[in-house]
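Because showing beats explaining, we think one record worth quoting, sequence and backbone structure tokens together, and here it is:
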Amino acid sequence: MVPTREEFYLITPPEKALFYVLAFLALGLFGWQVWQRSRVWMKGKPLSWKPLGLKGVLAYVIGQRKVKTSRKRSGAPMHLLIFYGFASLFLATTLLSINTYSPVKFHQGTYYIVYEATFDALGLLFVIGTGWALFRRAFWLPKNMAKAPQDDWALVMLFTLGITGYLVEAARLAVGASESGQGGFESFDRFSFVGYALAHWWGPVPATLYKSLWWFHGVLAFTFIALMPRMRLRHIAMAVFSSYGAESASMGTLKPITMEEVEATGKIGVAEASDYSRWHLMSLDACMECGRCTDVCPANGVGKILNPKKIVQDIRALNAGVGVVAEAVSEEALWACTTCNACVEACPVLIRHVDLIVDARRYLVAEGKLSGSGATMLRQLGSTGHAWGQQPDSREDWMKGLDVPLAREVESFDVLFWVGCAGAMDPGAQRATRATAQLLQKAGVSFACLGREETCTGDAARRAGDEFLFQEKAQANIETFKRYGVKKVVTACPHCLNTLKNEYPQFGAELEVSHHSQLIADLIAQRKLDPALPMAGSVTYHDPCYLARVNGESDAPRSVLGDSTSLNRDPHGSAKGDLLAEPGNRGRRTLCCGAGGARMWMDEEPNQRPGVRRAEELLATGASTIAVGCPFCRIMLDTSVKQVSDADIRLIDLAELAWERNRPLDLND
């Protein structure tokens, strides 16, 4: 006998008709609910970017990239079992349907044997995964995961679907064996190995029991389809749309606002949910409330009101109605964000929480609702071009005693050394700036600085919500770049790096921008400089968010220090070299110091400083020196280290450590 099986085995024509009625009813309810939600999405603004498309679906849905790189104890293996098990059963049903309704019948012979063996095995993944999930929710529910009873029932439904699928298979085989007239199974039945084993254990089964199980399984499947848009499990489908429509731009790139938009809408930023893009609104429906975004949020981690998961849910609740986003979320929560993008990095369905927050901040700033030190910073930046309010001439103070070339005084140069506000003003950052300049000089790099012609990149203004102040500074700097023919830029500030590299191109800039650690690492590779090579275990390195996570650079700083660890190739950041005393959270998993998102200039309660949490982790390594690669991190960690320890801890930029190794010997020392 040719290996195959009868479709709709023992199901009468009237029963088959009822099956189709229920199937179309379930699919109709599913489609109607999705259509209702799509009407809400369409209230948003049209997409202003080229979506990732199929590439996004393959990477983030089929490839489950975000889930595979999630943090420890996140249930990632469990989720992968459920997803790939569910996907395999969906594929099995699809293939069977194609065979049923197409003129070509291929569900037989060798194909049938391979089909049965393969999907019997893959179905076990689904059963194990859903069983694991039920156990986890009952005994070990993660802190920030949703706890609604409907989630438990959804998992019970899925687990039951998996179990009854095998019971139906076993009953079919048992009934077939009883009615074959030969008193046994077909030789190819053993390839349906799960059902085959159950059928042997079960023994003779009446046809009525088989049909009862068949109908129970079918009705349960239709019920699941009809209810899915109302359950958090809708993310199974919504993640496809979210991944397809996501933009490819770096998570550190915010969207600009044009004056034409302001004139057309009469508002700046996002007041109501409908002011977001259609993709942003749709992505909110993909949220599973897994809580990973909240788990990694530095503000939430120190007790602040900010909860990224709750922000997504609060905005989604406004989708179908009206209401001001800032009121639904709370202004306090919006201002607490450091824009470190840890939430965006962690989100499996690509929700861009920082976009949601900054767009709402833009509205608040336009309405005059930012006060205190944050508002003072914006006024200073607008009047002096310096976030700390220093006058332009002060940008050359750090150069005293050094023969630093200025762009206005030299005929040509290859690289512009962008100093930044902190690098020019803060005493600690000035030492890093001087060390960088001296390293470039020793290596023979043709570089120049702008000095008093440099003005703030506008990063703090943009992330605080003053978009047009940012654009004013960006246009001024771009004109300066054009005047001097600047094509390559190096900076010791990751915030400047991100803005110049990822956001200035929005306004026509064409720049090759690198962090000072990247350039120094290249010079070390060319044997023009030597790595720092501190004593093993004496130094720990703090990865800045805007360098490691937002711009994906973790290796270069370690190369400067002399460590061969490669964290860029390890998404978990779990690699560990022999030279540095590495903290638990490193690379893309780094903990924020608390300075980003203009928080540097906002008041902070001493017991709610993200920098304190990071300082404790760095000090726990036992290192006596903390190396940094960001002036903002240095400022925040300096305060935090002193708050948690009386030990003599050295806080130093990696360029300074490299210069200590490379500077000429002073015979008078």
